[in-house]
């Protein structure tokens, strides 16, 4: 399976990603998207990286690094989570770290590569995403691929003193 596109490629986590993941996991601006509530230590992230070799069938998740080919620079992460081979479904999440790397097509290409991988290699029937109702860029991104809105989880996430709805989108493999 080729996880290489025109401008990005997706690769497995490496021990050298410790600082990159540490920065992402401890970036409070991203906590709302990742549902993080406390900082992570380098020790915990190092342990996570040591176990990142687990197969998706064993770990029920897969995290890949999004690398911009031109600069050969890690720019984000794309995750599969809650992998359920029996029911042939998986959740998908993505984060592009820096504002200057957003709205460049990197996220679109990364999602396209992962959708192909999920449908063709993992033989998944459906992919779902959970998106905060005010996250217009993510709604636009996943709608581009035919993800359909299927429901709202009312007041699902508490961000500071505000409760936000979370939208559920789903993409069915009709092949």
UniProtKB/TrEMBL annotation:
The family database entries (CDD domains) matched by this protein are listed as:
NAT_SF
User: What are the entry keywords?
Assistant: Transferase
* InterPro entries xrefs: Acyl_CoA_acyltransferase (IPR016181), GNAT_dom (IPR000182)
Give the EC number(s) listed in the UniProt record.
2.-.-.-
Name the source's superkingdom: Bacteria
Question: Which N-terminal stretch is annotated as signal sequence?
Answer: none
Ranges for domain N-acetyltransferase: 8-166
One GO molecular function term of this record is: transferase activity
Q: What Gene3D superfamilies is this protein classified in?
A: 3.40.630.30
Q: Where are the transmembrane segments?
A: none
Task: Report any Pfam family annotated for this entry.
Answer: Acetyltransf_3
**What is the name attached to this protein's record?**
GNAT family protein
